[in-house]
Structure formats: structure tokens, C-alpha cells
Predict the structure.
Amino acid sequence: MATISASDVKRLRDQTGAGMMDCKTALEEAHGDFDEATTILRKKGMASAAKKAGRATGEGLIGHRLSADRSSGILVEVNCESDFVARTDDFHQLIADVLTEIDKAGDNASEAWLHDPKGPVQQRVAAAIGKLGENMAVPRFVRYAGRGHVGQYIHLGGKIGVQVEFGGVTAPVASHGEFTTLVKEVAMQIAAANPSFVSRADVPVALLDKERSIYRAQMEGSGKPAGVIDKIVEGKLGSYYAQVALLDQPSIRDPKATVTDVLNGAANSLGSPVTISRFARLKVGDSNL
């Protein structure tokens, strides 16, 4: 049997965060091979993860990463059990590692890839569970790349993350201070007002039909003519759009103007129109509802 020194045990402990006795046992089992010992500990960590899998993961943070040229961006929700663990360096390192794995996977990063028990993300999560002793999860991520200019906004210290993709952004526009302000303002709008769609054209017909039926039911027995009821229903639908469609929402900067008005005003200053292609808003815990 290989001689296992105290310094070897400490080295493995520093690398893995596992207990001293667990490290000593793993090194003995691996005959002093550090890689094999690490694998043994990771397997134990995965067993530990399985035991903790039923525990609620309502805390955590939204990790975020933007490319230097703003052509791509990633948001990822990483959950744990307690706010205490969410503040640790090890948890922040897990977030950074997960972001790196998504970045490396590129277009191959999918929901199935994310949740694959043998995949890189779940392997990292299992190791972190073994080290920190809490259940953890990475339920979802959003990655935009190659289709426009990406902006982000992180709110409440990482509890809410917003990612927005803009179209029609030329190099001169991207470097303009007015555009930087616009990106931040639109992202803050999404964080605060939580729209579901970019525009009213994106709202599914089935959802609109459902809203219309609700409004008509509210008018039953009113005695109003059908034409009047139709106008009232469409008026209510306008209010509905102002809730769910980003471009129809009142601006958080000036409630008398819509987000569309803000975009038009920015276009005048920038000398070129820009559009909002898509957006995502992740809030810690929403994926567990």
C-alpha cells in the first residue's frame, strides 16, 4: 500500500473540499493516485447529492456573462438551500464554472444537455453538493449568440437577471452613449414590469381569444348593444397589451410614453432605428413554482 502523508491528504482536501478522513481513505483506495482519489471522492459526492436531492433549493443567484463585443450573452439560474451558501466563494465559483461549460458547449448547450447526469454541468453540481453539503440545482439557462447586440441587467444582487437582444445595431450605434442608456433602460423595464412578449404580434391567438371571452363574459347582462360591447372588449384588450407586451408598456422613465416611444426617440438621437429581437427574465425560484 502506498504511503499517504499528511501533506498529501491536505493537498487533496484543498482541491476537493472533502473531509480529512475521506481524503485519506480515498488516497489509500487509489494507491496514492490523486486523479483516481478525486474520482472516488466525486462518486461519493454524487451519492451525497442523491441523498440531498429532495431538499428544497429556493435560494441562489442568476449567473451572467457577456462577450466583449456584446454579440453573445448567457444567463443561468443556480439554486441552493440557503442564502448563506449563496454568498460563499465556492458557490460563486460553481456559477462561474457552469457559465464556462455553457460557453464551451455553444450551440450544443440544450435543456437535455444541461440536465444530463453524466454531463459537465451536473458533474460540477454534484461535486459542489459534496463539498458544501447542501442540495443545489441548475434548472435553466438562456444563451443568445450571433443574432444581434446583447445587453444585460442584474437586479437585487443577482436575484433577477435580464438579457435583451437588439437588432439593427451598427458599430457607431453600439459606441453611442445614448444607446448604452437605452439598453440599460429597456433591461430595467423588463426587470420591473415583467412583460411576457416583445410585441402584441407575439401574443398567441389562443391567449387573445381567451381574454376576449373573459371580457365579454364580464359584459353579460349589461344591456349594451353588440357594437358597443365590441369596442369595450377591444379597449380592455389594449390594457392587456400594455401589461404583457414590452413595446406597449408605459416606460418606467416616463409613464406617459410607451417603450415604443422610447425606441423611436432613441432612433432620432442615434440617427438609426434599433429593434428589440427577444428578451429573457430569470428570477431565482421562479423555475421551482
